[in-house]
């Protein structure tokens, strides 16, 4: 915190996470989970009507690393320290986020009552891709005030 002037979090991880059975299985089964996410991840994404990550090398291993790391690791102590140190924080939430539920906003507010919160209506977890203008507007406001 002492090295930061301000912090902007988009779809903040480490608070609450929604997890499907497949996600939980591959997260908790090293080796087998790694193989399954590489093979089944793109197939499932297409079945769910999503094309993100289909052609990008490293996409699914990075998703799995998130599931095993920052998304699953509760960051309460870190967020409370940032609040105590007085670092201005902006949290930008997707109202329809299927990974970090909007209910996490309430938990995050308990950890950092001074944080600014921005909710983007109709946005999911990939809000920087689907709603870049709204995310950029929230960020500009935070950066302008700093």
Report on the architecture of this protein.
With 146 residues, the protein is mainly α. 47% of the residues lie in helices and 10% in strands. It has 7 helices and 3 strands. It has helices spanning 21-28, 32-47, 59-68, 76-84, 104-111, 127-130, 132-145; strands at residues 7-10, 89-94, 116-120. The chain has a 3-stranded parallel sheet, with helices on one face. Helix 1 packs antiparallel against helix 2. The protein is globular and about 45 Å long. It starts with 6 loop residues before the first strand and ends with a helix. The model has no long low-confidence stretch (mean pLDDT 84).
Chain-wise SSE layout:
Blueprint: E1 7-10, H1 21-28, H2 32-47, H3 59-68, H4 76-84, E2 89-94, H5 104-111, E3 116-120, H6 127-130, H7 132-145
Parallel strand pairs: 1-2, 2-3
Helix pairs in contact: 1-2, 1-3
